[in-house]
Known about the structure:
The structure is a single chain. By secondary structure, the chain is an all-alpha fold. The protein is built from 14 helices and no strands. The chain has helices at 3-25, 28-35, 40-68, 70-83, 85-88, 94-123, 127-157, 164-191, 204-219, 222-251, 257-307, 314-341, 348-377, 379-401. It is globular.
Amino acid sequence: MNASAMFRALCSVGFLARFSYALARNPVLPLFAVFLGAGPEAVGLAVGISTVTGIFFKLPAGALSDVIGRRRTMLAGLCFFALAPFAYLVVDDYAQLVAVRFVHGFATAVYGPVVMAVVADMAGARKGEMLGWFSSVGIIGTLAGAPVGGLALSLLGGEAGGSPVAFRVVYGVVAATGLAALALGWRVLRDGAENAPSATSGGFRVRLGHFSSGIREVASDRRVVAVSAMEGVQNMSMGALEAFLPVYAVTVAGLAPLQAGLLWAVQVVTTLLAKPLLGRASDARGMLGRRGLIVAGVAACAVPFAAVPHLTGFWPLAGACLVFGFGEALVTSSSAAMVADLCRSRHYGTAMGVFGTIFDVGHASGPLLGGLLVGALGYGPAFAIIAGVLLCSVPWFLTVMRGCDSAGTLCGQE
């Protein structure tokens, strides 16, 4: 299988995996938790516990792929997509649901950084563009999963928001889609075995040494951490906006729930469409270009984010979401590619593990920080403080990246 065919096939696997995961999560999961008797705080835990899995296990999973090989680790991640959903079929209390969600979180924790490393391996000088395309396909899968899950519950559960049969049918579809992702992934990785990086040779001690040294080498590179932190800070603002824009739009701006949903769609679709094109632009401009796009993207997120509490109409808020979505695309189209640029190819998995861990920390902290600030200060000051954090991260990032020229001064290269 040539590189182009393998990339298209990996995109198909990514679509199926992300569709399956989104179908299990939104809006089915919160409604399932409520059906099992959970209150608001417990619903939040059930939704967020899978992100905790990613925080703790993305880095080890990425580093492990550098040692035992990408194919084995990616297939392990796809096994969680395929097999974990079957556990939902026997859940009958809240504690079981939380446990299953934690285990299901291994799907993205293991698969996420490893598949990005696989794409980086085959991308060569086109890392920004190919990672952008792959991410956009995953976003499409995520977007498709949520309405399908909501429609299924509406058709099977009626106005009650769900029933035992409805939830089992939906999670049966989740399992079937996860199995399809595993089957296609196994075929893709089998046919592309000749192009895959080889695993580290040697016994257990040798492999453990490579595992530990890879984590130390990547995690100790301040530039890798700095680029990942910019993605994490941007993702913190996205998490806060995702959590509180709908509430603000309905309770303060007086918009209908449908309009609040459309605001989120404007942001996501803008990011989806812009990422591949901006990824190509970052490839063409080299390391300095990626750095500049990240800085511009953070600024483009901070300004509309701070402006949201001062806007009340649908169209002004939609304009702010459009600019925010474009800023998000500027950051995300360059950050993962720049992390790959900064590391030796044999450590791509570890690098993407560091990147994914910081990404998840940002995603988890955004709603929490936003909730504390909004509750204590109100929307205007809260959004201004988060926007200030975004802007203050720029000079620190530029200071850390000083001396990284357009040709690339790669970490750990000999």
